[in-house]
## 1
Amino acid sequence: MLTPRFTCSQDDDAVIVSLYVPSIRATEVSILVEGTSFTINVNPYFLRINFPSPVVEDDASSALYDPSSGYMTVKLAKAVKGEQFQDLDMLGKLMAPSTSSPATNRKPMIEVLDGDDEEAKKAWLMQERDTLLDAEKHNWNLPPPLPDTPFSTSLTHPYGFLNLHSGYFPRATDTENEVNTYGEDAERLSEGERWEKMRAHEEEKWDPEHYIADFMDDAMIREILAQDAPFFDLLHEPITFTDDENLIMIQLPQREFLLTPELNRNLYLTIVPILFSTAYDALTTFSEPTSQSAWTISVLAAPFVSLNSLPANCTLLSALVSCYRRALAYPLYRSWALCEGVRREAAQILRKGRRGVGKLLFWTRAVLDAGGPYAAYARVWVDDYLRWVQMHASDETFLSLADELSALHISKVDIGWPLQELEEAAQEMQQGDSDDESDQQEHMLPAPL
C-alpha cells in the first residue's frame, strides 16, 4: 500500500484533511473515525492519522473527491467545538502510533505495540516527558549516570541513530567517502574503538601553522562573521514546511522509538554537533552550498565521523569541545572567533524549536544527498532525527538547550591544544616585525642639515 501525500488544516469546528489520491474509484473508499484516529483505505492508498484530540463523524462531516485534480477533501468535526489542534503541520507526528510502552532494562528498540491499556501508556508518556523536561532544564552540564555496557560477541556493531543501522560501509574502500577513516572496519569496530580512532585522527590533523595563519590573516573570517544570519529567510516566522519537505516526512520509514529519559537526553546533545556543522558550512559558503559542503558537514559532525551518539556521560561542554576541535583541525577556515560565531548560530536555530531544527535538518539532508557517498549519513542519522524531532522533541527543551549553549563558558584550554600560547607567540612575532620596520624607517630618514 502507498501512503498518499496529505495536509491538515482546521477551522473552529472541524479538521480538514486534503489527500492526493489520483485515479481511484470513489465508491471503494473506506473511512474509519475512532476517537483521535482517522483511517482511510482506498486501493492502492492507505493512511492512518492520530490527531491530538478526538474527532467525530456527524452531519457536518464530509468527504469530497475531485477526479480532475486527484484530491480528496475529508472534513471531520471536532468533538469539542472551538478547540485548537496543535501541530497539524507535523506530519511525522500525526502519522506516529498513538500509544507506546515504556522501555525496560534500558534496551532501546523500535517496535509497534498493541493498543492495550491505552490510558496507562499515555499517562506514562506524559510522566516521562515531564521528568525529562524537569531534569534537563538548566542541567545540560551535569553528567548522567554511567550506563551499563553490555558485553557483545557480535562480529559487527550497529551505528547511527540509536544504533539502528548497519551495512552502509561494507565496501567503504570502493567509495570516495573521505570522512570514513575506518574503511571496511566501520562495520566491525565497537563504539569505543571508533570514538578513540576519531580522536586520534583529530590529533594527526591538528596543524598549528594553519591555525596561526588564519589567526594573523583574519580578513576572510571577519567577512564571514559580518554577514546576515545565514538562515534568516529559512527560519523566518512563521516557519512552515514545503510540499517537498512534507513528502519526505510521509515517505520516511514508519518507526516508533522507545526511549528512556537518558537516551532522549543524549539525542538532544548529539544533535548539537549536527546543527553546528551545518551552520559552519552555511556561514563559510554564504548560504550557497558548494561541492565540498557535504564533506564539510560530515567531517565536522562527530556523530557522523564516529558513527556513534555522543558518549553516554557526555555534557554540553564536551559536546561543544568536540565541535570546536573538529572545526579547528579539518576545514579551510580554522578560527576560534569563527567557532564562537557558529555556536551563536546553532543556539539561534535551537531557539526556533522543533520547526526550526526540522528545517535545518531538511537543509542538511539535501546537502548530504547531493554529496554522493555522504548521503549515507543522511540515512543513518538525519532521517531518524527528522522523525524524532516531530515525535519526541519539545520546543521547551530546545529553548532550554539554546539558553545553556549561549551561556556556556568554553576555554581555549578545554580544546586540548595550545591555542592561547600560539596566539600570544604570533602577536609577539608580529609586534617584533612591526618594531623592526619602524627602526628601519628611522634609519632611512635624511640627516638634519
## 2
Amino acid sequence: MIKIGIQFKIVLLVLGVVILSVSAISWIAFDYNQRIIEQRYRESLEAVAELKSRKIETFFQAFAVNIQFGTQLKAVREKILQDSPLVKDAFIRQITNASSADSVRASNDSLLLAVDTLSLITNEQVAQIKEVVLNENEDLESLFSKLLTNYNLNNIYLTDAEGTLLFVEGKNREKAIIGQSFSNLDKDGNTIAVGRDSVYFSNVFFEGEKAYLFASAPVRDKNKPEDVLGVLIYDIDLRYIYEAALDTTGLGKTGELQLTKDFGNTGLRLNPGRKENWVDFSQKRTLKLGQRQGQHLMASAKGEEGEGMVQDLNGNTVLAIWKNVPVVDWGLSVQIQAEELATPMRELLFLLFFYGFIVVLVSLVFALLFSQLLTRPLLRLREFVNLLSRGTLPTKLTQGGRDEIGEMSRQLNELVDNLRRTAHFANQIGQGNFEAEFQPASARDILGLSLLSMRDSIRQSAERDDERGWIVTGLAEIGDIPTFYHHHRGAWRPGL
C-alpha cells in the first residue's frame, strides 16, 4: 500500500480547495461575462437595426410626401391635360370653371421639393416640402430638373392614366420614348396599375452594380379627385440605401446588414453582403421558403421580427436581429458572426486560465511552506514518540506556541517527567529503598499506583522474609546447644 505523508495530504488538500474555488469563480465570471458580451452585441445590433430602419423609412417617406406634392403641381396637370387625348375635355372644363382664387392658388403650386431625407418626416419638414416657388411661370422641365438635382433621381416620368409617356426628364430624355407605353420600361408591372390608386414603390432592379426602383403616384383632377388624369413616376437611385446598408459602423469585423423582399414562396436579397462581390451576390439573391440557411432573411422579408442564433447563407452561426420596413415592405436583418462574439470570450478564458494558473502556483508555494511549517513540529513529535516506543526517555521537547501542537509538546514533556520519576522510583525499589518518595501523576495513574502497590508488597514480603530468617536462625542456634554439650560434656569445666 502506498504510504502518503501528511505533508502531501496538506498540499493536496490546499490545492484541491484552491483549484475548486478558482474553477468555480472562473466559471461564474465566464458565464456572467458571456451573457454581458452577448447582451452588449444584441443591444448594438438592435441599435443599428433601428437606425438603419429609420433611415430607410425616412428616405422613402420623404419620397412619398415629395411625389404626392409633385402630383399637385400646376405644370404637371397642365402637361397631362394638354398632351393626353384622354383628358382634353377635362382640361377644357378646368379652364372654363376655374375661379380666380383657384387660379391664383394653382399658379403657386410649383413646389421646391428639397427636404433632408436623412431625418424622420415631421410636420415642420412637410411644411418645408410645401414651400412654394414664387415663380408663377416656372415650367415642368425646370421643376423636374430641381427634383433630379435635389434627390439624385435617375429619371422622372409623366404618363397619362393608361401609362402612355407624356414627358421624361433625366438620363432617358434623349431617348425617343415619348408616346410609348411605360410598360416597356417597367420590369415590375405594377407601377402604373397600383400607382393610379396610391403611392407605390416597385421592386428593386439592377443595372450592373447600380440599383433603382420606381415610385409612382396618381395625378388627380383638381375638381374631381376621383378622376385620375395620369401617373407621376420617379426613377429613384438607391445609392443612398446601399451606402447605408454597406456602412458597417457598430457591426464589428463580421457584422453586416441584409435587405430582402418577399415574393410568396421565394424572396430576394436586395444588397450584397459585407465581403460578397456582385457576381456571388447575383447567384445567391434568391431565398426559398423553408430553407435552413438564411431562414431569418426570409422571415424578415415576410414581415416577421425576431432575434437569436441562426445560420447565415454560408452555414456560419450568426447572432441576428431581423425586422420589417413597412413603408416599402422590405425585410431588414442585422447579423454578426458568433465567431466574433467568441473572440472576447476566448481572450477572457485565456486570462482566467492564466491568472488561475498563477493563483494555483502561488497556492502551491504557500501550501508547501505551510505544510512544512505544520509538519516540522509533527515530525519532531513523531521522533519523540518513536524514542518513547523504544523505551528511551528523550530530552524535553522545545515548547512551541499556544496551539494544539504546543499543547501536545507540553503534555509529552510531562509524560517524560512522570516516566523519569517512575523509573527512578522503580530503581529505588530495586535497590531495596522502600522508603523512597513517589507521588503518582494523578489518582488514575495506573503505573504509579501499581509501583506503590508493588513497593508495599515487596516491603511486606521482605519483612516476612526477615522474620522467617530470624526464626530459622534462632531455632538453628537452639538446636546446636545439646549437640555441643554432648560433644564437650567430658571436657567441660566451669570457667573454661
## 3
Amino acid sequence: MAFAELKRRFSAAPILTQPDTSKQFIVEVDASESGVGAVLSQRASDNKVHPCAYFSCKLTPAERNYDIGNRELLAVKLALEEWRHWLEGAEQPFLVWTDHKNLEYVRTAKRLNPRQARWALFFDRFNFNLSFRPGSKNIKPDALSRQYQQEGEALESESTFIVPPNLVLGVSRWSLERRINAAVRDPTTIPSGCPPHCLFVPPGFRPAVLKWGHSSRLACHPGVTRTAFLVAQRFWWPTVSSDVRAFVSSCPVCASVKSPRTPPAGLLQPLPVPSRPWSHIAMDFITGLPNSKGKTVILTVVDRFSKMVHAIPLQRLPSAQQLAEVVVRHVFRLHGLPENITSDRGPQFVAAFWKEFCRLLGITVSLSSGFHPQTNGQVERFNQDLETTLRAMCLKNPQTWSSQLPWAEYSHNTLVNSTGFSPFQAAYGYQPPLFPHQERSASTSGPAAFVRRCRRTWTEYRSRLVRNQERFTSVANRRRSAAPEYKVGDRVWLSSADLPLKGGARKMRPRFIGPFPITKVINPVAVRLELPRALRVHPVFHVSKLKPEKLCPLQTPPAVPPAPRIVDGGPVYSVNKLLASRRVGRVVQYLVDWVGYGPADRQWVPERHILSRDLIDQFHREHPAETSVWEPDFVRGVML
C-alpha cells in the first residue's frame, strides 16, 4: 500500500508548476557559509504554495568572507538575477521570504556600505516586499544552500570553542594561600576577630598579600578602598586597614603614574609691597606676534608699587646686552635705578652679563622658581590684559598692533584699578588731565604742597595695596593646601608636566619622576633638588610641583641603581633600550634608557659610544623611519 501511494503521488501531481504572470510570485531565499539557495513559487487554486523553479549557487572564496547579513542579501540578488525575466515588470508586487529579519529594513536604511549601495540600484528595478520567515519554515532554500558543504565542514565552521580542546580545566592551587595555611597550623593562634570566610595572615606573609591585592594584574594598582575590598575577600589580620593605606600610599608605581587629586601644595606667599614707585619692577616678554613695522616682540615692565607699565616693542628677543640697553633707554632714564628686578628664568635673565650688569648697579635680581610663573604674577597678568586689548583694537588688521601699543599702555596707566587709584596717579600723585578745562582747574600750589600730596597719596595707596593683597591671599589659599615641612635630605617626586622628557608617547609617560633628595630649603614654598645632569633644568622648584616620598616597612625598598663597571679606568653603564635617534651636525645620537635608572636619567649618546651594534640594528628594525649613518672609524666607547 505504501509503495502504491508513493507511486501515485509522484505520477499524479506535477513537481513544478508553470509560472503564471497574472499571479503573485514568491521568492524564498537562504544562505549558508558555502552557498545560497532559492525557490520561485506561486499559490495555486488550493491556496498552497507550489514551486515553479529551484536555484542554488556555490559561493566564491571572497563571498564566503561576507558577514551573515551580506550573504543573505546576496542570495536575494542572485535569485532576482536568475528569474529576472519573470520578476522584472511583474503585474503584481512579489514577495521575498528570508529568515534574516534585519533584511526587512534594508530598502529603507539610511546608511549602506558600498556593496549594498550597488545592489540597491539593482533592486530598484523590481517591485517586491521583503518579509521575514522563521528558519524552521524556510526549509527548501536552506537545503539548497547547504548542498555544497563538505562533510564535517558545518561542524568545524559553526562550532566555537571558548577553551581549546587540547586544554583541560582544573582547580589551580595558589601557592601563597597554601604557604599561609601551612604557617597557621594551630587554630588557637588565630585572633578571635577573624571572619569565618577569611584566612588569617601572619606578619611574614602580609607584604606578599598586599602586593597581590594592589600590584598584581588582577588588581592593577587601585586606590586604598578598592585594594582593601580585594584583600578583605579572602584575607584578614588586625591591622589590615591601616596596612593597606600605608602600602598604597607608599607604592612607587602609583606615585610615579597617578596625578594628585588634592589642591596644589603651598599657600600663597605674596611679594612684599614696595614703599615707593619704581623701586621694585617686574619684566617679561610677549612673543608670537605678527610682524608689525619690523616688530615681533614686546618687553613689558611693571612697577610693582603703582602697577604702572611700559610696553616696549622690539624686533626680536634681545640678548642680555641688548636687554640692558633697552631697559636703560626706556625705564632707568625715566624712573631711576630700581632696587629689585623680578623675572622668569629666560636666557636673557640668567645670563652672566645681565647678572653682572645688575650687580654693578646695585640691583637685586629675583628669579621665579622652575615652571611656576605665578612668582612673577603681576607682569603675567598684565601680559594677558595687553594681549586682549591688542586683539580688540587690531581685530581687522592684526599687523597694526605696534601702532596701537602706545594707546593700550596709556589706557592701562590712566584707568583706575581695584585700589581706587590709577597707576599714573599712584606714581605721580595726580590724575593726568584729559581735556583743557581739567588743566585750567588743576591746583597750582607750590612744590611743598605737591610733595605732601604725593606722600599722602602713596601712603593711602600702599595701605590699600596691603588690604587688597591680604584679601587676594585669603581667596587664593582656599584653593591651595599647606605644603609639607620639607627638610634637607627628604626625598620628593617631581612633576614631569613641564620637563623635557624624550622617548615614548606623552600619554604613557610617568606623571612624576624621582624620587630626588632635597639639598636646600629656600623658603616655605621653594626647594632645591639634586637632579641628574641629563635633565638640564634649574633645580629650584615650587612645592606645588612636588610630592613627598612615603615609606612603608611592608613595601619593597626601592631598587638602588647598579654601580657601573670599571673598564680601562672609566665607568661603563649598561643600555636597556634605545628610544629615539637624531642627527647633530654629522654625528648620529641615540636616546638611551639605562638599566636600573629611570626616565629622568635618559641621555643622548653618540653612536660611536654604544658598543653593541645589535642594539642599534634592533632599534632600526623597530623604527624603520629613523635613519643612521654607520661610521667606519667606530671606536671603543664608554657605554654598553
